[in-house]
Amino acid sequence: MGTAVLLARAGFKTPTTEDFVWPCITPHWKVGGAELCINRTVGLTFFTSIVVVVLFLVAFRRPKIVPTGLQNFMEVIVDFVRVGIVQEVIGERGLIFVPYLTTLFFFIFVGNVLGVIPGLQFPINSRMALPIFLAILTWILFNAVGIREHGWGGYFKMVCFPSGVPWPMYILVTPIEFVSTVLVRPVTLSVRLLANMIAGHLLLTIFFLGTAYLLQPSITALFAAASFALGVILVGFEMFVAGLQAYIFTILTAVYLAGALSHEH
Amino acid sequence: MGEVVAFVQTSMLAVASLSVVGYGIAAIGPGLGIGFLVGKALESMARQPEAAANVRTNMFIGIGFVEALALFGFVLAFIAK
């Protein structure tokens, strides 16, 4: 982004999705058709994992009965996932999923919030690889839970033949239900997170590049302050979106798990 | 030849901006949807405050589904360039 700011002096170049592709910082080697190396995205992904692990280790290494400081803060969030998401959506049976959902929430939130931390400033979830990986994990989990709960035939019947539908409607309903449950769920789950992060990062880039461009010595310098102010407001908005998207990803995972466990149909 | 290249370039520019206009139009539906959804959720929360937690959770799930439509449009506006 530093070079982009310098380029902006010459003429305003709107940021595109190509600004999300980073060059390799280590030697790279080819495996098949793909190039493997560590670039900024991969480095920040490692960083996110380490931050999440260290947060939990420091907070819960020596847990006290009356929590203080970091332990208190982390307990509030874990309790939010446990009560506000799991018990609310799945019920008591869902408590075994609390570790997975908590990890998911923290990983996505830290990965998103990197987008507004000075010096790092790149939300790792704005590259498709991470959201689709998390969505595939969730997809495998809720299908496995459903198959374990109802058996292969029972789960297939529950997904494709919802009860309470007159039988001629199955011609229409069965393909729709199958496609929406098995194919569309991981796609919407990942694209929602990805597109939010791309949009937020592009907005921030546009307003801060706009500030740098408008600061050129001319009458437009008057508008630079407005662009900068909106950029600062959007930083706050991005922090809100980071939390909201982590929450929505986690709660939709819980909804899918609850659907796989349900017995009403 | 140069004229043809210039024409292609300008029409590609027009297509790029057209996809942005298309996204603007496509965002109307989900925008209305989310507004309607949140409005109704607030109404029911005001009518029955003891159900507020349940309504809020389901409101966020609904927002997640509706928002996905707008975001598909956003992604397609980039792909269609």
Description of the structure:
The complex is a heterodimer of chains A (265) and B (81). Helices cover 69% and strands 2% of the residues of chain A. Chain A has seven helices and two strands, in the order H-E-E-H-H-H-H-H-H. In chain A, helix 2 crosses helix 3, helix 2 (40-60) crosses helix 4 (98-113) and helix 3 crosses helix 7. Chain A starts with a helix and ends with a helix. The relative contact order of chain A is 0.13. With 81 residues, chain B is mostly helical. In chain B, 90% of the residues lie in helices and 0% in strands.
List low-confidence stretches of chain A.
Answer: 5-9
How many H/I helical runs of chain A?
A: 7
SSE topology string of chain A: HEEHHHHHH
Terminal CA distance of chain A: 53 Å
What labels describe this entry?
heterodimer, A: 265 residues, mainly alpha, two-stranded antiparallel sheet, 7 helices, globular, B: 81 residues, 3 helices
Give the topology.
The complex is a heterodimer of chains A (265) and B (81).
Chain A: H1 2-8, E1 29-31, E2 34-36, H2 40-60, H3 69-89, H4 98-113, H5 129-160, H6 170-214, H7 221-261
Antiparallel strand pairs in A: 1-2
Helix pairs in contact in A: 1-6, 2-3, 2-4, 3-4, 3-7, 4-7, 5-6, 5-7, 6-7
Chain B: H1 2-26, H2 28-47, H3 52-79
Quick description:
The complex is a heterodimer of chains A (265) and B (81). Chain A has 265 residues and is mainly α.
